[in-house]
Amino acid sequence: MDKFRIRGGKPLSGTVTISGAKNSALPCLAASLLTAETVTLRNVPYVRDLITMRRLLEDLGCTVLVPELRTHRISAASVEQFEAPYELVKTMRASVLALGPLVARFGQARVSLPGGCAIGQRPIDLHLMALERMGARIEMQAGVVVATADRLKGADITFETVTVTGTENVMMAAALADGITHLYNAASEPEVVDLAELLIRMGARIEGAGTPTITITGVEALGGADHTIIPDRIETGTFIVAAAITGGALEITNCNPRHLLAVIDKLRTVGVTIDQTNDHKLEVAVSGRLKATDVTTAVYPGFPTDMQAQYMTLMTQAEGDSVITETIFENRFMHASELQRLGARIRVHGHSAYVHGPTPLTGAKLIASDLRASASLVLAGIAASGETWIDRVYHIDRGYEKIEEKLRSVGAEIERVK
Ligand code: EPZ
To answer: What residues line ligand 1, using a CB cutoff of 6 Å?
Structure first.
């Protein structure tokens, strides 16, 4: 297993280019199952989860051409099997995004139940409720969801909890259903909007994406499309914190600041200088002390749960006490115990973590547990004095494209050790 070796304490400076959003590329790749024509996706991030999704599509019978590293050309003209096997699903829960398209286009799907993961139990009951509401028959067979349907029908569906991939599964399934689907309490994340834009390019009739009420009018068939994935707002936020925590200054390009306004607003309150030079570029610097500031994660457009771990690392260097409250997942503070090993003063109590800062961080051996927790450990490592080793960096490779190369290019002393 690869490890990162980091020698911290160097202020970052230079330019970082943001990759495409993993959490948009995943549903967009799945959406290609909805048509026999070719779907071309550009700005696909070169990360493990997308390699997994590509393998899943190929196992189903799709042809996936990659004419250049970040362009995928998918054809689902000859899909002849409809199962997302446990081996794939257990490594990536987002495989559940094959469920909606397969049932909508082929009337059948077998998707292994994803099971929990490090950050929580993460059920898919809302996905299944929605498909049943649209006329699918759902059975459980030895841990596999077996869904069958003649033709899905439009339905009125209300999600009791906001679910991002649940919203995405319903949009994809309803696009080919017979009739109109109204989805209430839908997720409004930018990745949901990006998927809707792809589906509309494919011929879907969708209104309201980006708001809590989405209306989808089913059509007989969808066609191909050519679509560019939005920038990754979480990678953008991660690099803003990297500049702040090292007392450096970064230019961040190929980003979309409008997709992370809550993060930018919060970090400005902390004392990070963030200037938006244009629609796709941010200038980040730190002038003076960082001020401890509370945060509570929320669904979009609130402060994203996927930035909570990175923010906690920053708060260990801020002056004063801060309270970090996690409202989306039940167990997303694993990074706290690893940060304590570097010298951070953090107390976790239920859904809140209490951070006292600033505390000097000194390098240690760490183990990554999930994607965003690993990012928070890398941020701690580049801020800590001495040497930090991080094991199991495959977690971070799932969602960050060559993070060590991007960090090294702006002055961090970090290398991947096989
Ligand atoms: C998406 O996961 C993201 N993944 C996650 O990013 C992100 O943390 C999460 O949304 C929240 O923003 C992708 O988009 C591939 P949810 P998802 O369904 O869709 C509960 C990362 O780091 N729930 O919005 O799986 C669930 O338990 C990953 O890139 C149900 O109860 O999250 C959670 O408490 C981590 N029943 C809450 O809803 C369901 O059927 C939100 O989950 C579905 C969800």
So the answer is: 22-23, 26, 93-94, 120, 122-127, 161, 163-166, 305-306, 328-329, 371-372, 399
Which of 28, 62, 117, 255 is an active site residue? 117
Q: What is the structure's pLDDT at 57?
A: 97
In this predicted structure, what is the pLDDT of residue 88? 87
40, 396 contact by CB (below 8 A)? no
Q: Which residues pair with 216 in a beta bridge?
A: 181, 206
Instruction: Compute the distance from residue 124 Cα to the ligand 1 centre, in Å.
Output: 9
Extract the tokens encoding 319: 């002056």
DSSP-derived 3-state class of residue 346: strand
| Residue 214 · residue 167 · CB < 8 Å | yes
Q: Which atom of ligand 1 is nearest to the CA of 299?
A: 12
Distances (CA, A) of 146 to 115, 245, 383: 16, 47, 48
Q: What is the pLDDT of residue 117?
A: 74
List, for the chain, all residue ranges whose pLDDT scores fall below the cut of 70: 116
Which atom of ligand 1 is nearest to 398's Cα? 29
**Separation CA 60–CA 356 (nearest Å):** 50
pLDDT at residue number 89: 87
Which phi-psi region, left, alpha or beta, contains residue 403 (left: φ > 0; alpha: ψ -120 to 50)?
A: alpha
What is the CA(165)–ligand 1 centre distance, in A? Answer: 7
Half-sphere exposure of 121 (CA within 13 A, CB side): 4
Q: Which two tokens stand for residue 354?
A: 């209490």
Which pLDDT score is estimated for 90?
A: 86
| Shortest-distance atom of ligand 1 to CA 187 | 24
Could you give the CA distance from residue 250 to residue 149 in angstroms, rounded to a whole number? 52
Kindly state the percentage of the chain with pLDDT values over 70: 100
| 297 CA from centroid of ligand 1 (Å) | 13
Does 117 participate in catalysis according to the annotation? yes
Kindly state the tokens that stand for 416: 């991947």
**What end-to-end distance do the CA atoms of the chain give, in Å?**
7
Could you give the dihedral angle defined by the CA atoms of residues 275, 277, 282 and 285, in that order, rounded to the nearest 10 degrees? -40
**What is the pLDDT, as a whole number, of residue 189?**
98
